[in-house]
Specification:
With 247 residues, the chain is of the alpha/beta class. 41% of the residues lie in helices and 16% in strands. It has a single domain, classed as TIM Barrel. 2-phosphoglycolic acid binds next to strand 8.
């Protein structure tokens, strides 16, 4: 049985002070027995949030990292820096980073390899645009993203990776994929993982759905056979996140 994993992606929201207010509100309320729970917060919030979550089972995640160990990369943050402050997860290849910050399948793969090498758990995002969905190339496109992300990743390593299927047209739009649409692609992703590795890796790997998840649709989405939780943007910034985690 795969344990569900529900992660909040705060994006560029919440100052450290505001972050602590939200953490205070949520930390005793979310159920971490049924699901792994992760708060993926802005870099400057990581230290105070990690401190505030000590003694709970809620993990801290970053929203990006660089694939080099260290060096002259102004403005970037390394895996070692994240590990040193207690970060456990890192989102890699979010569509907003692909869209606005030149993240490519190649850099996503480099970051996945570095995160694994260092011992961070990558949450790797894939997903199609509305245009691709309308052209009926969703599964083909997502398969390419998955295969590129796992290049040179061993089967043992792959089992620990978390994938997030996030159709771009559903992110921040209030339009959620139907549970059937989300399940169809998550099942195709699992099949792709089975093709790259084998069925046992595919059975073990966790695949989240992301895109306008909220307290009212979480239960149905997370109830689908191949959906192992969610990556939640807007609704993770509010008390509503509790109802998603405790769906
Ligand atoms: P949303 O964002 O829940 O606000 O649609 C999801 C995401 O981008 O991870």
């Amino acid at each position: 049985m795969r344990k569900k994993i529900i992660a909040g992606n705060w994006k560029m929201n919440k100052t450290p002070k505001e972050a602590l207010e939200l953490v205070d509100l949520l930390k005793s309320k979310v159920d971490t027995d049924k699901s792994d729970v992760v708060f993926c917060v802005p870099f400057v919030d990581l230290i105070p949030v990690a401190e505030a979550l000590k003694g709970t089972n809620i993990a801290v995640g970053a929203q990006n990292m660089h694939f080099q160990n260290s060096g002259a990369y102004t403005g970037e943050v390394s895996a070692d820096m994240l590990l040193d402050i207690g970060v456990k997860y890192v989102i890699i290849g979010h569509s907003e980073r692909r869209q606005y910050f030149n993240e490519t399948d190649e850099t996503v793969n480099k970051k996945v390899l570095k995160a694994i090498e260092k011992g961070l758990i990558p949450i790797v995002c894939v997903g199609e645009s509305l245009e691709q969905r309308e052209k009926n190339v969703t599964v083909d496109f997502v398969r390419i993203q998955v295969k590129s992300a796992f290049k040179d990743v061993t089967s043992e390593q792959a089992k620990g990776v978390v994938l997030a299927y996030e159709p771009i047209w559903a992110i921040g739009t209030g339009i959620t994929a139907t549970s059937e649409q989300a399940e169809e692609v998550c099942a195709a992703i699992r099949k792709t993982v089975a093709e790259i590795y084998d069925q046992s890796v595919a059975d073990e790997i966790r695949i989240q759905y992301g895109g306008s998840v909220n307290g009212s649709n979480a239960g149905e989405l997370f109830g689908m056979a191949d959906i192992d939780g969610g990556l939640v943007g807007g609704a993770s910034l509010k008390e509503d996140f509790e109802s998603i985690v405790n769906y």
